[in-house]
Amino acid sequence: MAVGEVITNLAAAPVAKLSDIRLSANWMAAAGHPGEDENLYETVRAVGMELCPALGITIPVGKDSMSMKTVWEEDGGEQKSVTAPLSLIISGFAPVTDVDRTLTPQLATDAGDTDLILVDLAAGQNRLGGSALAQVYRQVGAVAPDLDDPEDIKAFFAVIQGLNADSKLLAYHDRSDGGLFVTLAEMSFAGHTGIDIKLDGLAEDASQFARELFNEELGAVIQVRREDTGFVLQQFSAAGLGDHTSVIGTVNQDDHIRYTFEGQSVISRPRADLQRLWAETSYRVQSLRDNADCAQEEFDNLLDSSDPGLHAELTFDLNDDVSAPYINTGARPRVAVLREQGVNGQVEMAAAFDRAGFESVDVHMSDLLSGRVSLEGFNSMVACGGFSYGDVLGAGEGWAKSILFNDRVRDQFAAFFNRQDTLALGVCNGCQMLSNLHELIPGSEGWPRFVRNQSEQFEARLVMAEVPASPSAFMEGMAGSRMPIAVAHGEGRVEFPAGTSADQLSDSELIALRYVDNRGEVTTRYPWNPNGSEAGITGVTTRDGRVTILMPHPERVFRTSQLSWHPADWGEDAPWIRMFRNARRWFS
C-alpha cells in the first residue's frame, strides 16, 4: 500500500513512464524482538523482491531504523519497555515532463457539464482494516487494503498519463486517508463547489455505505467533461479496468455536498459546514499552539461560502516585456545577488534578474567583509531571503549589524545608496536587513522594522497582495494590480519607531506593497494578512524609489509554473516578472 499510494499520488503529474519513479524506503523495526526479524524479512522480500520488480520501479536509497524498542527500569525496580510496530515509509520522486500539466484536486466549475469518475483498484473489496473509520470506533479491523495485482496499477498509471496528455482530465485526487467520502469532500473544498454523488452503482443496499465511502483502498477520482466521459471509460476498459471504473456524480450550483441512493437523500450538507468539520481538529491544535485569535479568524473565514478565493486583476499587459528593447542591445547590467549564512533564495533571485536582462553575480557577505568583492563594481543589488543565521529571531537585524559595525563595509553600502545610478531590492531576510540600514539609505525616513508575526508562527502561504501607487522603480506601471504572491517568514509584522506611523507612510506614498483579502480590500485579518501588519503593509520604498524592500517573495513566483494557483490563461510569465523588467528598463 505504501508503494501503491506513491504511484497513485505521482500519477497526477506528467511522468513519462512508471519506471521513471524512484523510491526511498525507510524500514523501521525492533530488531531482536520476538517475530519482528521474520516480519521484516517478509516485508523486504514482498516489497523489494516481488512488487517493485513487477512494477519496474527501483529503490536506490533508503534508511534503516532497527532500534524501535526501548527498555527502562522504574524506581521500584520494575522493568518496562515500549516496542514500536514494524513500519515502512516510502517516498517517491520522478522527473516531470511538463509541470504545467500537473493535475490538482480542484474541481473545475467553468468547464460546462462534467462527470466525476471513480477508479477502484481494489475491484470492490472495500477492506476497512486500519482505516480512519475503524480508528474512530477504536478498532483495527480484520483485513487491511492491499495492492493485489501490479498489472492493474501499471495499467491505471498508463491510462491516467495518456488522458492527461490528451487534456481529457480536469481534476484528480487519489483515494487515501478517509476513503472516497473524504476524497470527494476535499475536491469539493478545493473547488469551492457542491457535488452530487449517486451511490446506486456503488452499493446494493444502505448497509454497505460505510464500506464504500470509508475504505482506503487504492484508487482515484477524476473529473472529466461530459462529452469526454465515454472516451475516458473506453480507455479504462481497454486497459482491463472497465469493471473498476464508474461515473458516480457531478458538481452542483447550490454549494451542497449531497449523496443519494435510489433517489433518496443519504447525506445533504452545505459544503462550508463540512469544510469546517474537516478543519476543526487543525483549528483546535492551532488555538492551543499559536495565537488563538488568529486561529479563530482563519476558522471563521470558512463561514463565508461566497469567498471568491485567490484572483488576479492586473493594470498592465502581462505580455508586455518592457525590458525586451534593452535586452536586445546585448548590455546586461551587473546585479550583486547578496546573501548571508543560511540564505537560500539566491538562485531563484538570480534567475529572475537574469530573465529580465541582468548579469547576476553571487556575492556572499564574506566576500565583502574580506575585501574580495566591492559594491563599487555594481549599479544594482538585491539582498535575498531564506533562513539567515538559521532564521533565529532578529536574524535580519544581526545581518545589518555585521555591516554597520564594520567601517569599510558600512562605507561601501553608504556610498552605494548615495549614488544616483543605483537600484536596490530587499526580500524577506534581506528586507529586514535593509530596514535596519535605514540610517544609510536616503529617503527611508519613517520605515518600519519587521518583527514577529502576530500568529507567532512561521508563515508559508500564497496570499493576495496589491501594488499601491508609489515612486518605486520596481513597481512602475503596476499600481492598482492585485495578484497572488508567496510568503515564507516568521518576522514580517511592521513596527513603527516613535514619531512615525503607517498613516505618514501612506500619505507620503512610500508603501510599495500591501496585503488584501480575496475581495481586494486592504486587511489585517489572518491569514490573508499572515503577519498582522498594520494597514496591510508588507513593502516600502524610498522617496526616489531607488530602494524597495518587501517581505513576500516575488522571485518565487515570476514564472506561472511556480504558482500553486493561477488563472488558466497565463502563459510562461507570471505578473511578478514585471518588477525585474522594470528594473532593467530603469537602467536604460
Write structural notes for this entry.
There is one protein chain. With 588 residues, the protein is α/β, with parallel strands linked by helices. It is built from 17 helices and 23 strands. The protein has a nine-stranded mixed beta sheet with strand order 14-13-15-16-23-22-21-18-19. It has a seven-stranded mixed beta sheet with strand order 7-9-6-10-8-11-12. Strands 2-1-5 form a three-stranded mixed beta sheet. Helix 13 crosses helix 15. It is globular, with a radius of gyration of 28 Å. The termini are far apart.
CATH superfamily of the largest domain: Class I glutamine amidotransferase (GATase) domain
Low-confidence stretches: none
Strands of the widest sheet, in order across it, are 14-13-15-16-23-22-21-18-19
Which percent range fits the helix content?
Answer: 25-40%
Q: Could you say what the CATH topology of the largest domain is called? A: Rossmann fold
Under CATH at level 1, the class of the largest domain stands as: Alpha Beta
What is the makeup of the main sheet?
9 strands, mixed
Distance between the termini: 59 Å
**General shape:** globular
Count of spatially separate domains: 3
- The count of strands amounts to 23
Broad structural category: alpha/beta
Strand percentage lies at 15-25%
